[in-house]
Amino acid sequence: MPEAPDRTRTVFPEISSRAWEHPADRAALVTLRTLKGFDTVFRSLSGLLRERQHRLMYLATSVRVDSSQFADLDDLRADCVRILDADETPEMFVLQTPVVQAFTIGMDKPFIAVTTGLLDVMNYEEQRFVIGHELGHALSGHAVYRTILMHLMRLAGTIGWMPVGGWALRAIIAALMEWQRKSELSGDRAGLLCCQDVHTALRVQMKLAGGSRVGEIDTESFLAQAAEYEASGDLRDGVLKLLNIELLAHPFSVLRAAELKKWVDSGAYAAILRGDYPRRGEDDDANVADEFRTAARTYRKNFDASTDPLIRLLREVGGGLGGAVEAVGTGVGDVASDIRDRFIRRRRNPGDRDGADE
Q: What are the phi and psi torsion angles at 93 (to 5°)?
């Protein structure tokens, strides 16, 4: 039986997804949103990824959530849609597998899938966080990252043997992976806005790391692991950390919990609860340059505050590295800017094949 909600939650009328998006994630998305008609292009790409075929597969092999099937999830989804003031309610399917997982598929008509393994591990309010997380992905349009990545990963398999081309493509893929990892932090913030309980949000990450035995896990000790992970070890460990995460689509659970707690401690979460958040009607006025400057400042701040041995050495030996780190923040926009330039050029010169998809 579902647990009774402990209270009435704050609703955010007309809230823009920019309210919960991580600065680097937001900067990339704002760049893409400035392109009128760009969503049409990516819907076409999504078609190439057989979005409709995926939905038909889940329709035939899993259980669609509605008022008569998994009614508790249907209620949670409706509540998350109400809290984030979403215009549409995405379809949701329950998939039979012991793997603890939830994901959002599609760009034209996004739908959410959750596994029975996740439902077995998460309680009712933790499921609210998960559904809010996935709804955040759908509202932000994060399928853009996954669409581009899937095309590039397939391309990497065909030209990866070429040293120069392979390294160039690897750099682009790494940038997109960085975007996607930040998009998961954005999703966590959306999940918190839906459940509006910090302890529940942190408990989800604890269960992702340690399973259902959450009674054996101490929140403060769990968060302390993130600080120890960053500060411990020597230069070799610093390099290994980079290699560990290079091609991961999700940040590690311990680090996700720490990042969410950091967002709460910054006061940004409380400000949204007070009603201080960007509205969807203001999205067209969002300035790309301002967003990338904000992203750059975030990377710079994290660089300056990092206790990682490798980062400490880089700070000590490279006085000018601060500017380089800011460039990382703005540099993740290179891919988006290049896409935008190619898109505009194609619209102006339809016969020009430069930049067209292969």
A: -130, 145
